[in-house]
Amino acid sequence: MKLPLYQVDAFTAIPFKGNPAAVCFLQEPMPDAWMAAVAGEMNLSETAFLLPENDGYRLRWFTPAVEVGLCGHATLASAHTLWDSGRLSAQAEACFYTRAGRLTARKDGAWIEMNFPSRPVEPASAPEGLLEALGVTAKRIAQGGNTYIIELTSEAEVRAAAPDFSALARLPLRSVGVTSRAAMPGYDIVSRYFAPQVGVNEDPVTGSLHCRLAPYWSAILGKNELSAYQASARGGELRLRLEDDRVRLGGQAVTVLEGSLQC
């Protein structure tokens, strides 16, 4: 059996920028261990698996190490692939059934807008060793679930952060984002995201992080629409719009590889 397989760079319109994700279309349910093995073989921060269900697709996301409950860039890559491959008309909404509930996406010109849950954070103290592992001094600290948000004083500090990933992986947390107001013209905020506990030392561009950054920065900046840049080595940009308990995540995507998976 051959299964269609794509590699898409998400949150960018430029090949080899943004965050790469594999997108695999299934014909029938496959064992979890098989999907985990495929994700390990792809060795990207996420591999998405889509199986037709009702008016859309069952969507699951795997890193090379674990299955995750919410992923923005692989959802963006999946929606892009549905339209780009002709599986869905440009006017149709993409619908996904996931562990995070029903998610949708629609085309908006050259951009794709996804409807995701907002994930508010609360002021917190850093776990012992976190700031040392990141090598930063915090301006403010917030926590949502087992993810920490560390606000730094400047974009330069965000870009200069050089975490000790071995030390970070030993801490009792899932992931951490560092963020600040943007110095670059045209952007409100910048960030980086580290998650060695789930097999991704630094994620190039992270939609799920921005489900937390949107309410965090909206409260500080007093605005519900934000332009964000994730300042990883690959880099990527997002448009954020906070609407009650939802975040509209906007991004672009480009297909860089199309083939089939032998199974």
TrEMBL record:
Q: Which SUPFAM superfamilies would you find in this protein's record? A: Diaminopimelate epimerase-like
Q: What is the species of this protein?
A: Longilinea arvoryzae
**Would you name any one GO CC term?**
cytoplasm
**Pfam families, sorted:** PhzC-PhzF
Q: What is this protein called?
A: Phenazine biosynthesis protein PhzF family
Q: Where is the active site?
A: E46
**MF-aspect GO terms:** isomerase activity
The keyword Secreted belongs to this UniProt entry's keyword annotation: no
| Family of this protein | Belongs to the PhzF family.
Domain of life, per the record?
Answer: Bacteria
Q: Which InterPro entries match?
A: Phenazine_PhzF-like (IPR003719)
List UniProt keywords, sorted A-Z: Isomerase
